[in-house]
Amino acid sequence: MKNITNISKTLYCNGVQCPKMLWLKKHHPELFDESVMNQSVLDSGSEVGDLAMGLFGNFTEVPYGDLSEMIRKTDNLLASEEQNIAEASFTYDGLFCSVDILRNLGGGNLELYEVKSSTSVHDIHLHDVAYQMYVLERLGYHVEKACLVHINREYIRGRELEIEKLFAIEELTGMARQMQGDVHERVQTLKACILNPEEPCLDIGLHCWSPYDCGFWKHCTEALPPLNVFYVSGMQKKTKIKYYAQGIVSFEDLLNKAKLNPGQKMQLQYELEDTDAHIEPDKIKEFLDTLTYPLYFLDFESFEPAIPLYENSRPYDQIVFQYSLHYFEEEGGPLHHKEFLAMPGKDPRRELAEQLCADIPLGVCTLAYNMTFEKARIKELAELYPDLADHLMDIYGNIKDLMVPFQKKQYYTKAMQGSYSIKYVLPALFPDDPALDYHNLEGVHNGSEASAAFAVMQKMNQEELMSCRANLLKYCGLDTFAMVRVLDRLKEKVK
Fold first, then answer.
1. pLDDT tens-digit map of 14-25
2. What is the β-pairing status of strands 411-412 and 109-115?
3. Which of 12, 33, 89, 140 could form a cystine bridge with 70, CB 3.0-4.6 A?
4. What is the pLDDT of residue 3?
5. Contact 195, 5 (CB under 8 A)
6. What is the Cα–Cα distance from 455 to 301, expressed in whole angstroms?
7. CB 370 within 8 A of CB 406
């Protein structure tokens, strides 16, 4: 039977963030909300980890499986003087860790390298490395060097990927060694916490989101009123925690005692009262009067690979692979549609930029929703392709933001819940329109799913590829069609 006190390096780091999180993972894992886990991030981390294994040349990987077998395999590799071992596994007194990259220097001397897909060292990474050093040195090994391997955000890929330039290595040996006493004390505390049959009495705080969002948030806040401070839009987490600590939790309390901006007051008042929509026709008309025809509606989809796939790209660059473009040649005229979706396996940026210039004429007005994203991507394309820069920057200079009337609360309803995100605005304006309901789509329902879908398209067979393309086209097409409908609704309110 598995010992409940067994602690892996992941569980140890959970305990560093919050002992209650560790206890719940051990005693009530069914309460964990999986929605906090971003599968794309997890997949990216796995890809980075796999690539980093070859950082020091040839290596032997300990296959994941039965823990005792992983430990036995590691012992055999160390005994045979294998120099580079990936996922070398160790256990000591109920503690377990797999070292991402272990360098065997001989005579019980080791170097450990923890690999992360981040672009810098974070405090939790130091705890991770210190824990691994603790386990290894309790087993009698000497850790000569303990390092964190992370992504070098400044690396620009050439024709070929250079992993020695992609990765940055930061030595943490001294700091990790200074933490050994703290690790020992924390291990004892966490073991005692796990063995206690009673759930730890630890209150919520900023640690609920740092360094990672906790999947037990719903469980830990189930006693709070449904309308509470944590649902106030546009309020910083530290401010929410401050009010919570003061007992100012309900919307009623917040209205009476908290310092709120006008948008937050509006949200709370609308939630507590049965109030008609707030509409400022004159202000909305001022916005509408800035629009000219022909009028284009633009939405991009992108993905950000940790490992740069294309020449002249950096890790985590936003790579645009798709757009949808609805447009009117004249006001009141028929609605037209154009679109672009790259095929996987090649750099999509040049072809997309050329097609965008062909599809959007010079000097026309283009609408985006939260235009900051579209403008940033267009500027990047212009910098990448100087021969297209004039046309791209013309599009850039003529973009207007459909979000503005909602951001300024010129149009507000209770259903928007204080937000001006399209995810809230669209269902608030069209609550009963199945054609505008993203839940009715197949396969791709949001931007994160679109990014994830494109990232794996290259691995699909022909049938899967065609189905995925169809799903992506429908999703992105709905983004711009929704903008058309939102504009129609704004026009209705100024007649």
1. 999 999 999 999
2. unpaired
3. 89
4. 60
5. yes
6. 12
7. no
Report how far residue 444's alpha carbon sits from residue 476's, in angstroms, rounded to the nearest whole number: 9
CB atoms inside a 10 Å sphere around CB 63: 11
Give residue-wise pLDDT tens across range 122-172: 999 999 999 999 999 999 999 999 999 999 999 999 999 999 999 999 999
pTM score: 0.92
Cis geometry, peptide bond prior to residue 361 (ω within 30 degrees of 0): no
Instruction: Give the Cβ contact number of residue 91 at 10 Å.
Output: 17
Burial class (CB in 10 A: 0-12, 13-18, 19+), 374: buried
Largest CA distance in the chain: 84
Contact 402, 486 (CB under 8 A): yes
Kindly state the average pLDDT of the residues 78-93: 97
Name the band, by pLDDT with cuts 50, 70 and 90, for residue 1: very low
* Contact status, residue 299 vs residue 374, Cβ threshold 8 Å: yes
Is 299:476 a contact under the CB 8 Å cutoff? yes
Give the strand pairing for 167-171 and 142-151.
Answer: antiparallel
Parallel/antiparallel/unpaired status of strands 60-61 and 84-92: parallel
Domain architecture of the chain: domains with CATH: 9-195 (3.90.320), 224-272 (1.10.150), 283-492 (3.30.420.10)
Of 264, 364, 377, the residue nearest 320 (C-alpha): 377
